[in-house]
Write a structure and sequence with these properties.
mainly alpha, 4 helices
């Protein structure tokens, strides 16, 4: 069985088009990954300085920070009830799990 030149050229063009489309998708994924990393770093930076930012802010900025982090703020008698918006809820829940505990090193060395 032999392949004609036309069939070969058609298949080659289809594969080149598919290869180009895959490259475009990979570029988009790479860009999205870079943007995600920048956003996470920015979020961590702001979160680590949240108290300082809140303390030094004017009332209207404090209100915006509170509304940005919390939802469903309700005073029930003497208790304040609230929900924490995503992704800030993940920070609160970190202390409840051991996901951030360091794993044992695979290069164990004897001390002394």
């Amino acid at each position: 069985m032999s392949i004609t030149t036309d069939v070969y050229n058609k298949k080659a063009n289809e594969l080149k088009t598919e290869q180009y489309n895959i490259k475009v998708r990979l570029d988009k994924v790479g860009k999205a990954n870079d943007e995600f990393s920048i956003t996470v770093n920015y979020l961590l930076d702001i979160s680590s300085r949240a108290f300082e930012l809140f303390k030094s802010s004017e009332i209207d900025v404090k209100r915006k920070i509170i509304n940005f982090v919390f939802s469903n703020l309700v005073i029930d008698g003497k208790n304040l009830e609230f929900s924490i918006r995503k992704p800030f809820d993940k920070f609160v829940n970190l202390s409840k799990g051991s996901n951030w505990l360091r794993q044992q090193d695979s290069n164990l060395r004897q001390s002394g």
